[in-house]
Amino acid sequence: MIVVAIDTSAAASVALVDGERLIADRTEFAARRHVEFVGPALAEVLAEGRAEGLVPDAVVVGIGPGPFTGLRAGIAAGIGAALGIGVPVHGVVSHDALALRALADTAATGAATTVTIATDARRREVYATTYSGLDDAGLPVPASGPAALFPADLAECRPARRVGRGFALYRDVLGDPEDEDPNALDPTAAWLARLAHRALSSGRALRGTEPLYLREPDAKPSARRETLLS
Amino acid sequence: MTRAEPLVLGIETSCDETGVGIVRGRTLLTNTVATSMDEHVRFGGVVPEVASRAHVQSIGPMIEKALADAGVTLDDLDALAVTAGPGLSGALMVGAAAAKGLAASTGLPLYGINHLAAHVAVDLVAPDSPGLHTPTIALLVSGGHTEILRIGDIVDDIELLGATIDDAAGEAFDKTARLLGLDYPGGPSISRAAAGLLDESGVPGDPTAVRFPRGLSTKKDLRDPERRFSFSFSGLKTAALRTVTAAEAAVSAQPTGTSAAGEASVSGTSGAISSGTAGASTAGSVGALRLADIAASFEEAVVDVLVRKTLLACADTGIDHVLLGGGVAANARLRERLAERCEAVGVTLRVPPLDLCTDNGAMVAALGAEIAARGSAASGLGFGVLSSLEVDDVLV
Questions:
Q1: Residue B382 DSSP label
Q2: Which of A37, B46, B108, B360 could form a disulfide with B19 if both were Cys (CB 3.0 to 4.6 A apart)?
Q3: How far does A34 lie from chain B, in Å, by closest CA?
Q4: Do A228 and B102 touch (CB under 8 A)?
């Protein structure tokens, strides 16, 4: 499968894979300008693919969890790109990408297969998902989450393997992340694309593109005012 | 690119409408709109996060629907256009990102354009219009905007003469409607109340019952070039609150319904109520202020200042043409009063069809097509959205 992936749940990242092989990648960690980034990055990644004669079979977008405004920029760009290429667009939970990276070589290394992903949820919370290993298609199996948690509440679960920027942000409470490489702290499109390739080529259905918000909008419904006037 | 009649798809997501329009040169092929208005009702106004959530759900289906309605494919298109601002930034980002995804994958040129200029440019493609008349004064009034523009040329010569310094006119309608216990959107609710349609009397309210303040309209304001064409509706909102509170106090102070003259009179600089209000209320009290009176007086105050300043702009510039745009163009009282006053001084008034006055993608496509036809360079893919984009930045 040739898959182009976009994830703007934390970093801003666009990548193209041919199966497991990474063809092109543009990733900006600590990104603040997702809309500015996504257009040129997508054009460049697709151009590198075209230079190798590769046209995507599918577009996948990371659906979060992550800060909403930036997250939607990647999803909307993916929706537009899929229409432009004329292929389907799918959604993947962004934490799955970090989980796949952490679990990809456990068979060789013998590392534990239970891994907890935690990313920045702002408001002194983390988004956390725990995975129990890879299934027979090589896809991470979620055991709990994703959910928005206070770091102290996540700490009580005593994560066996700690992966993601959430651990770096709340080290005192949660303990250090096992890997400080930026690619191990934020979900990246390269791993999202590999995951989508594995899922699609083994006939698994992926989600739609609706973002995983996990929180309601802040606005409070206004109480209807009654007037005495007739 | 220079083509006489470029086929352009335009995307608009600056507020609560997900609009996708397609034009061929100056011919409108489709104007497809999904609105999240119903989702904002319980909040009493547009909630940016709610609007953004709706945009990201609607944008793909709306693009597909527009292409199907117009009977064209992406391969047929010559260019794409998208609103880059002004507007709600999270909402703008959804449209801009989708447009960039389309542009990056198709190689089509993308124009990031100005929402306000697009409201005027829509007359290029309005089916009932011979084209955009220039020069013109444009009055743009909506829930997010209240501006008077001078348009010499839709691409190269747009000048902001004045704008609201606080609430937009539509926002003032929304807030006052809430105060009166009426539904969002406030404009249509207040108009119905003013017409006496909400109290089953069918007796219209008296627009002179309450002399609400006309913001930035004193002689001193009108002498000041910074204020001459500017609007302020926050004082009006406060005056409405005072008037309603006082009138309600008057109602609760007279449970029997017998009312002495001046019972409902309200003191204060802004809410003096004229005596002898027409129309007896169902409670039988003479002179009590009806909800219809307040609604009609409020509407009158908003319309009055909009019309007055628009015609001042015509007089000052010597331009004898006015174009009305924005959602508040749906207000019948505004259209009537503006038409009367324009006719009285020999100014032509143009109001595009209502579905082209409210936010839509066709206006974005229309402006994009005009810019493309003139051979302007596209915006590239790296531009950002600007919530307060200036109106003379027609193309980002």
A1: -
A2: B360
A3: 9
A4: no
- 10-residue mean pLDDT profile of chain B (396 residues): values are 85 97 97 94 92 98 98 98 97 98 98 98 94 96 96 97 96 94 94 92 94 95 96 95 91 62 41 39 55 96 98 98 96 97 98 97 98 96 97 96
Question: What is the reported pLDDT for A226?
Answer: 84
Question: In chain A, how many domains are there?
Answer: 2
Residue B242 touches chain A, beta carbons under 8 Å:
no
pTM (2 d.p.)? 0.93
Residue B239 Cα, gap to closest chain A Cα (Å): 16
Closest Cα partner for B55 from B100, B110, B17, B99? Answer: B17
- Contact predicate B240/B182, CB 8 Å: no
**Which residues in B lie closer than 8 A to residue A39 (C-beta atoms)?**
97, 100-101, 103-104, 110, 380-383
CATH of span B134-233+296-351 = 3.30.420.40
CB contact under 8 Å between A84 and B105, yes or no, is yes
- In what order do the strands lie in the sheet containing A58-62? A21-28, A12-18, A2-7, A58-62, A89-92
Name residue A116's amino acid: T
ipTM, 2 dp: 0.97
Residue ranges covered by each domain of chain B: 7-129+355-373, 134-233+296-351
Q: Does A36 sit within 8 Å of B383, measured CB to CB?
A: yes
DSSP A33: -
Q: What domain range includes position A14?
A: 2-94+187-201
A-chain residue closest to B43, CA distance: A221
Residue A170 lies in a domain: yes
